[in-house]
Amino acid sequence: MAGSLFDGAKQQLAKALKHTKISEDSIERLRSPKSIIQVSIPVRMDNGSLKTFTGYRVRYDDSRGPTKGGIRFHPNVTLDEVTSLSFWMTFKCAVMGLPYGGGKGGVCVNPKELSMFELERLSRGYIAAIADFIGPDVDVPAPDVYTNPLIMGWMMDEYSLIKRKHTPAVITGKPIPLGGSQGRDVATALGGFYCIQTVLEKDGLAANGATVAVQGFGNAGSVAAELLHNAGYTVVAVSDSKGGIYNPKGLDIPSVKRHKESTRKLEAIYCDGSVCDIGEHEDITNEQLLELGVDVLIPAALENQIVKENAGAVKAKYIFELANGPVSPEADEILKTNGVKVFPDILLNAGGVTVSYYEWVQNRIGMYWSADEVKDKLRGRMVEETENVLRIAHDKQVSFRTAAYILSLGRIAEAMEAKGSKQDYLRK
Q1: Based on the domain organization, do 136 and 230 belong to the same domain?
Q2: Which residue, of 145, 239, 305, 375, has the greatest Cβ tally within 10 A?
Q3: Nearest 10 degrees: CA dihedral of 59, 62, 68, 69?
Q4: Same domain, 42 and 157
Q5: How many helices (H) and strands (E) does the chain have?
């Protein structure tokens, strides 16, 4: 896997290891995933033909509890990608202090090319193929790229049929009537927002006048953009897979969001009551958005958007990684040299897995919380762990990414070493 995404992920771990004292046993166990399953999923298509799709599920480490991580449906899903994401989930759960390890799953498919009937057959077929690999006390999937509450509901139902008992805690991110949690739909963006607010307030950057660009106007990016807009930040640019829009005076994000949801088109729309007009804006590419002279840049799309080739052109003062792995290790070094403050994905987008944890807890105890209760719990945890990362970065004079890995690595190692290490066995 030379030059793979997983190699890059392990480079991040290596940096943190220089600043921590953990046993050789813990380091050895973190070098490789605990278990991997690859499955073939035959699906009867609407035209009567049979098509086989490849699926994966990786459980990286379960020292702190059942593994946890999303399932993505994407044509570019690979085992290397899923392994890397499960690695990141291991540290993401630990940095938030959750009793989970890291897992991830995916199916190599373009879901946009499937009918709803085909999508349901694929979703149920995937769960049927991995049913012995997951479970509420073993591995708990959730939504990810191109999967949603409806798909999670199908998957939970299929698992329950196989096990012959209602098992809502096997999957999180479900529809509310099937045991989903209030607040889960906006949790990733909301957690990121709480982190951003904590950091910028400590640095004395007032919301009024601070400029923001968001790459990726999907489930997380659009909600984050709206939260920041409503808090007084000037969101000057947003983009989706087809391109972006830019207005240095700011975009009316609620109107842009409503227009995108109703037409699937990204335009600078300004609404006064029920009357909407196309506003002043410049069409830009995703690449151009990353190079805008803004205070805050939020990559909320896919991996490796800021790489060695374009990192030097980034002018933002802060980067908050709402996507998984949007900055490559090589780009990270360039950004650090240029004084850009980068806050890592394992902290920024951990709101999703945190509220997934709350959903899992609610399923197991049979008691459900209000949206305000969930948001209060999420805010408290995000602020606490953000402050922990800031403190470690200051005390050890390391990057915020390395600080987050130091925090999570210490927690993982504690769990591993509680079961015994080399030093225990050699002690006389």
Answers
A1: no
A2: 239
A3: -40
A4: yes
A5: 16, 14
Q: Please spell the DSSP secondary structure of 57-118, one letter per residue.
A: EEEEE-SSSSEEEEEEEETT--HHHHHHHHHHHHHHHHHTT-S-EEEEEEEE--GGGS-HHH
Q: How far, in Å, CA of 352 to CA of 194, rounded?
A: 13
389-395 long-range contacts (CB < 8 A, ≥24 apart) are 389/95, 389/343, 389/347, 390/198, 390/199, 390/202
- Torsion sign over Cα 281, 286, 290, 296: positive
Tens of pLDDT, residue by residue over 78-124, are 999 999 889 989 999 999 999 999 999 999 999 999 999 999 999 99
Domain membership of residue 12 (yes or no) is no
Decide if 93 is inside a domain: yes
**Burial of 336 per CB tally in 10 Å (0-12, 13-18, 19+):** middle
Report the side by side order of strands in the sheet with 50-61.
Answer: 35-44, 50-61, 101-108, 67-74, 139-143
Among 327, 348, 369, the domain boundary falls at 348
C-alpha triplet 401, 405, 406: angle, nearest 5°: 115
Tens of pLDDT, residues 296-339: 999 998 888 999 999 999 999 999 999 988 999 899 999 999 99
How many other CB atoms are there within 10 angstroms of residue 419's CB atom?
9
Q: What is the pTM for the complete model shown?
A: 0.90
Instruction: Tell me phi and psi for residue 270, to 5 degrees.
Output: -120, 125
Residues 6+ positions from 138 with CB-CB distance below 8 Å: 62, 66, 67
Domain for residue 240, yes or no?
Answer: yes
CA distance 65 to 308: 36
In this structure, the dihedral spanned by the alpha carbons of residues 142, 145, 150 and 151, taken in order and rounded to 10 degrees, is -70
- 34 an active-site residue? no
Residue 254 domain boundaries = 187-348
148 and 231 inside one domain: no
Q: Say yes or no: 80 and 211 in one domain.
A: no
Number of domains in the chain: 2
Q: Which one from 104, 257, 260, 375 is the annotated catalytic residue?
A: 104
Q: What would the two tokens of residue 22 be?
A: 């953990």
- Please indicate, yes or no, whether residues 149 and 254 belong to a single structural domain of this protein: no
**Residue-level length of the chain:** 428
Strands 234-240 and 211-215: parallel
Q: Are residues 144 and 218 in the same domain?
A: no
Q: Are 222 and 110 contained in the same domain?
A: no
CA 236 to CA 291: how far, in whole Å?
Answer: 13
